[in-house]
Design brief:
CATH class: Alpha Beta
Largest sheet: 6 strands, mixed
CATH topology: tt1808, chain A
Helix content: 10-25%
Strand content: 35-45%
CATH architecture: Alpha-Beta Complex
Structural class: alpha+beta
Number of helices: 3
Amino acid sequence: MSGGPLEKDTCRDVILPALVRAGWNGDAVREQAPVREARIISVGGASRQLGDGFVDYVLEVDQAPVAVVETKRAHRQASDGLQQVVRYAQQLDVPLAYASNGTEIIERDMVSGRERVVEGFAGPAEAWSR
C-alpha cells in the first residue's frame, strides 16, 4: 500500500497555494519554523513540558504570529495533526491553529476553543481580528 504524496509535497502542491489564495504571501508565511520547548501551566496549576518541533507554517501579520498550520500526508486524516498544531499554537501564543491533509482543513480557535472543518484558511485581516 502506497502512502501517497509525501507531507512536503502536500505542503508545496496544496497547502501553500491555498494559503496564497487566502491572501498569505511573501514574508507573512514562515515555512518549517522552529518551535522551542516550553512549559505550559494548566488551569489546575500543574505544568507540563512541550518539546521542540517544527511547525509547517507560521502565518504572520506585521511580523506578529497569528496562526499556525500543520500538514499531514494525504492518506492520513487531517485530525491526526490537530494535537500537534494545538501544541504549537500554545507555544507561540497564536489565536488560530489549522491541521490539514490537503483535502480537509480543521480550524481550532484557540481563544474560544471552537473546532470546525473549514473550506479554506482565514486571510490576514480575519486572522488579525481574531
